[in-house]
Amino acid sequence: MRQNSQHVSGSVNWDHFDELGKKGLMMYDQMTPAAPIYIISQAIVQETYEIYATIAAQYFKNTLKGTLNVTAGLGDMGGAQPLSITMNEGVALIAEVEEELINKRVSSRYLDLKITDIDKAIDQALEAKAADKAISIGVLCNAVHLLEHMVARNVVPDTLTDQTSAHDPLIGYWPHEMSYEFAKKLRVENPKQYTLCADNSIYRHVELMLELQRKGSITFDYGNNIRARAKERGLKNAFDGFVPDYTHTLFGQDKGPFRWLALSGNPNDIAATDELIINMFPENKSMLRWMKMAKEKITFHGLPSRICWLGQGEREEAGLAFNELVRTGKVKAPIVIGRDYLNSGSAAGSSSHGSDWPILNALVNIACGASWVSLHYHGTVNADNSTLAGMVIVADGTNDAALRLSRILRNDPYTGVMRPVDSGNKIPQRAARENNLELNFIFNRLASTVEP
């Protein structure tokens, strides 16, 4: 088990947190980098794809074709957005201040075009929308400037969100009232002044998002703390009208992230697992669409890896099937299986108030024999506002691994159903009944996994 510097909520401000970090007593090592299965943008692409697919299903007849989707940020998290939107057949228009990040996304084929003029970028996005063309455009500008142009031109995007690193205004957010070069200099020479300027920009950023939301944009966030920062700066209605996220419907059905990595380093091993997953779950149409496009468009970073969202029972079946691939030599080495932090039974943020569920999730996974369990922070909120549990297990082809895979990949998702079922939510209650997940059954099964 790995524990990543938890501290009492509210007891440490950022200055004190940084001071403790310099002494080696605290660190901001968070989210999936806390586990040995961090697959960089691929995981975020898949989860962002699922979010936009849910939006498409709710508002646009299962496709984003003919829609304009505006956002900002092309870093390790935000860089997933353009490909996720075009995979759902929409137009993506994304503001990014750092030109090297735009170039990186173009070279990796996550982004189609770079444009340096805001109005030209808007015009091209509108042309693509009118032509039902799926294309992603990165515009070299601050998010505030892009939204100001859109408001001035009365261009209302169909969806609007943000994936800048607003949780860390000093390092992750760029003030709009100064040049990029001046901002880099100010960040080093006067970090307090820089943070104040960044907070002013965050205020304006959310203010513009709210204005476009009132005009009709479906406006949501990923939980990157931008609205909380704006409210702290004085924007009283910062939380008005936003949809927090579109994952709860999926979580209520007990669908969630399932990721794996080939320790052999051989892409053919991932190809074998791809084929297996596609053949095992032919009725999961959204997953099949994702897997097809992922094979065509996703570039591996480091060891070959893959992610998809699977439902209750499917994760256990897949894990056991992977173990059999290793046992029979159809892949060259063991396969590491995990999931992202974005899992309903293992995450608690400031809106959750209690952190008992991620702690329970971690304890369950330890008891069931996980190879790696971690408690850590959420990467997009303040360090004292979240607790998350991570899990990793190795399929090495042995009978022992099969037993532990069955326990982990059944019980880990259980917490995602247990958590909301008592709240009266009909979706998880139905999922519990359909999958024989009544609470007494759950705890009896957990008890039965403990060997004498």
Q: With helices defined by DSSP (H or I, 4 residues minimum), what is the helix count?
A: 17
Rg from alpha-carbon coordinates: 22 Å
Terminus-to-terminus distance: 22 Å
Strand segment count: 13
Overall spatial form? globular
Q: Considering DSSP H and I runs of 4 or more, what fraction of the residues is helical?
A: 40-55%
Point out poorly predicted stretches.
440-448
- Judged by helices, strands and strand pairing, the structural class is alpha/beta
Largest sheet: 7 strands, mixed
Q: Tell me, rounded to a whole number, the average pLDDT.
A: 83
Share of residues in strands: 5-15%
Order of helices and strands: EHHEHEHEHEHEHHEHHEHHEHEEHEEHHH
Notes on the structure:
The protein is of the alpha/beta class. It contains 17 helices and 13 strands. It has helices at residues 14-22, 41-59, 81-87, 99-107, 118-130, 143-153, 180-189, 191-215, 226-233, 248-252, 267-280, 285-297, 314-327, 356-367, 399-421, 426-434, 439-448, and strands at 2-3, 68-72, 91-96, 113-115, 135-140, 159-160, 218-219, 256-262, 305-310, 335-338, 347-348, 372-376, 387-395. β4 (113-115), α5 (118-130) and β5 form a beta-alpha-beta unit. The longest helix is centred in the middle third of the chain and has 25 residues, at 191-215. It is globular and about 65 Å long. The two termini are 22 Å apart. Residues 440-448 have low confidence and may be disordered.
